[in-house]
Design brief:
The chain has helices at residues 16-22, 42-51, 71-78, 126-137, 158-166, 211-221, 234-239, 275-284, and strands spanning 26-30, 33-38, 54-57, 63-67, 91-93, 96-97, 103-105, 108-113, 116-120, 142-144, 149-154, 178-183, 186-191, 200-205, 228-230, 288-295, 308-312, 315-326, 331-339, 347-352, 355-362. It has 367 residues and is α+β, with helices and mostly antiparallel strands. The chain has 2 domains: 16-62 and 148-237, Gyrase A, domain 2 (2-Layer Sandwich), CATH 3.30.1360; 238-362, Beta Barrel (Elongation Factor Tu (Ef-tu), domain 3). The strands form 5 sheets. The protein has a 6-stranded mixed beta sheet with strand order 12-13-14-11-3-15. It has a 6-stranded antiparallel β-barrel with strand order 16-19-18-17-20-21. A 5-stranded antiparallel beta sheet has the order 5-8-9-4-10. It is globular. The relative contact order is 0.14.
């Protein structure tokens, strides 16, 4: 694949120099930044994540800071999940929708104070979106992208590594909750979270000048557990059934279609963006749903760069939105965004580069 040429519109992260030293082999643009996507050894990187511990530069996971007298009201307007019981120090995974009930992001909302929140976002210009909505509603909020860059430590041994750096008190942090900490003068917030099914932490660096220092501290502390560089693994995330906003969604996708119904609380105020449309969608029932696809292939295929048509009985019934060779199942798998007329167990054909590949629909996550 061709290289990404130098471009000041694509920012590098505070951990960039550390990833170069680790031998990063590929980047992908995300939130107008460069995200490491490979260190050249996909199976070893997968094994570190699923059996040991992996260190990720995920500074591309930017924050939208919301502060001011109307911060709580505004944050709830953006989220279809009821945030009224959210505590300071707690994060909540949410669905953000437009007026049609279509997903525009699936961030984690971190509550830092009664009048201060962060949206930890997927790949989308949410700062522009938030500024437009705040102006439209005439709300008193200050919005910015703060100097905050997450470093993820993921895998079965992640807790041991983070405890070795910060102390055993981190073992008591609950899922999606976060605490303030400092190491060698570097201010951070530590949250039990991460884009994998293996468990771990995201360490939110609050001083962009100290990225390499923080990387090296965690790298050294993790040596007894075999820590090494990695990235949000497409294989592990597909096996674990994790949604990729923008990858598995299109400009028509609503939360009910991609297994996010638990994050839609229809009783929230009418002012919440998209909630009235979502009430109608719920009443009528979604037209599509997300299932797994088990392809009848046991040999690895090239990475999927586009959605593939899915056919049943000679008609298009949906799309395969992602795919990979599963190291766990030793076959090609992926996600289907498909008509609700199709159910787990149904046989389908995926049309890849004009040729049909047979497969079977299944529930997610893969077992």
């Amino acid at each position: 694949m061709a290289e990404i040429g130098p471009n000041t519109r694509l920012r590098v992260s505070p951990f960039y120099e550390a990833t170069l030293k680790e031998g990063v082999a590929a980047f992908s643009p995300y939130n107008r930044m460069l995200m490491p996507t490979s260190y050249g050894h996909p199976r070893a990187e997968y094994d570190r994540l699923t059996k040991g511990v992996s260190l990720w530069d995920v500074a591309v996971e930017r924050q939208v800071a919301i502060e001011g007298p109307d911060a709580a009201t505004f944050t709830q307007m953006l989220c279809t999940r009821d945030l009224s019981a959210q505590k300071i120090g707690q994060g909540k995974y949410v669905a953000c929708c437009d007026y049609r009930g279509v997903l525009v992001n699936d961030p984690v909302v971190l509550k830092l104070a009664e009048d201060r929140f962060w949206l930890s976002i997927a790949d989308k210009d949410m700062l522009m979106w938030c500024r437009a909505i705040a102006a439209e509603r005439g709300l008193q909020v200050d919005l910015c992208e703060p100097d905050v860059s997450p470093l993820a430590v993921q895998g079965p041994m992640a807790e041991n590594v983070v405890a070795a750096v910060f102390g055993d008190w981190i073992r008591d942090i609950r899922f999606f909750w976060f605490e303030d900490a400092e190491i060698d003068g570097i201010p951070v917030k530590i949250q039990r979270s991460g884009y994998s099914g293996q468990g771990g932490f995201e360490i939110y660096l609050l001083d962009g000048k100290r990225g390499v220092d923080l990387w090296n501290i965690v790298r050294e502390a993790g040596a007894p557990w075999g820590i090494g560089p990695g990235n949000p693994s497409p294989v592990e995330r597909i096996e674990s059934g994790l949604l990729s906003f923008g990858g598995d969604t299109d400009d028509q996708t609503n939360p009910y279609e991609v297994r996010l119904e638990r994050y839609v609380d229809l009783h929230v105020p009418d002012e919440v963006l998209g909630i009235q449309a979502l009430r109608e969608i719920k009443a009528a029932g979604p037209r599509r749903h997300q299932l797994g696809v088990l392809l009848d292939e046991e040999e690895p295929q090239p990475g999927q760069l586009t959605w593939y048509d899915i056919h049943a009985q000679g008609q298009k019934v949906g799309d395969m939105t992602c795919g990979c060779f599963s190291f766990k199942l030793e076959r090609m798998i992926g996600f289907a965004l498909i008509s609700t007329d199709l159910k787990p167990g149904d046989k389908i054909e995926v049309i890849r580069h004009g040729a049909p590949v047979t497969g079977t629909l299944c529930e997610l996550p893969f077992r």
